[in-house]
Amino acid sequence: MKQLDEVVAASLHSFESITGKGVRAVYNKENYVVGNKKLLTENNIVIGDELLSYADEWGQQSKTIIWFANSKQALAVIAIADKIKETSVAAIGQLQDMGIELYMLTGDNEATAKAIAQQTGIKHYRAEVLPQHKADFIKELQQQGKVVAMVGDGINDSTALATADVSIAMGKGSDIAMDVAKMTIISSDLTKIPQAIRLSKQTVSTIKQNLFWAFIYNLIGIPLAAGILYPINGFLLNPMIAGAAMALSSVSVVGNSLRLKWNK
Questions:
Q1: d(CA 231, CA 209)
Q2: Residue 77 bridge partners (DSSP)
Q3: What does the DSSP 8-state code read for residue 157?
């Protein structure tokens, strides 16, 4: 196997990665490309009817289509299928029930993207989207006054993740996606995303409640301790009561925060 690798490396004169489309290489002085249909079209490569029919059929089955061709014609077509997890469908339903508008941005062809969207219940999608175009689409939504959250796990998602207001990376994704994202879901279970949103809302609500309890004691206690009622009825706040009130303030804040542990 090592000798075979050395022979291939010796015959491979050049290799070029084309972002969002595929790769190009020169092998034994012959040009070859591996990638999507757009890559073949841009290089004026002929696609036979038989291979095209296979690609169309597989695309309707929500499979990702990869073409292999030389400089003149397509030599083979490969279909790769990712099984859609039941938890993904459930997560999409939960997010939509929360009033969140979902968009699927994918580099796959139109037929594949449409099939996946139908299977998962996603109403809005865009197919054959290049990495930079994902970021441009996010900017369009932001210009409409929308707060945009981006969920991704690949290198091609990194630009869009950096552009979004809230960026969420999946734990089993690429390192660059996790570095760019503001939040990383440890697992690849998409149902963790609506859970994270609910937890963040509960956390913000708890912070506001804690601020209320922290200020209400001071708002009432400081004027009383300063003698605001003394000219009226001679009342002065006992220092022991003031100290107990401040301690109770801290206890109420800590206790209220601990309630997050029991929220499911």
A1: 34
A2: 67
A3: G
Residue 158, phi then psi, degrees to nearest 5: -65, -40
Residue 34 tokens, joined? 């591996």
> Residues 189, 214: contact at Cβ < 8 Å?
no
The label of the residue with tokens 């994704």 reads: 173
CA 193 to chain centre: 9
- Number of H-type helices and E-type strands within the chain: 11, 10
Q: What is the pTM of this model?
A: 0.68
Give the pair of three-digit tokens for residue 191.
């149902």
Mean pLDDT per 10-residue section of the chain, whose length is 264 residues: 46 77 86 89 88 86 86 89 82 93 88 85 89 91 94 86 92 83 86 90 90 79 72 74 75 84 72
Place of tokens 């990376």: 169
CA distance 39 to 20: 9
Three-class secondary structure of residue 140 per DSSP: helix
How far apart are the C-alpha atoms of 15 and 17, rounded to whole Å?
7
Q: Which residue type sits at 76? A: A
Query: Which residue intervals of 121-238 are DSSP H helices?
Result: 131-143, 158-163, 175-180, 192-225, 230-233
The CA distance from 51 to 241, in Å, is: 85
Residue type, 15: F
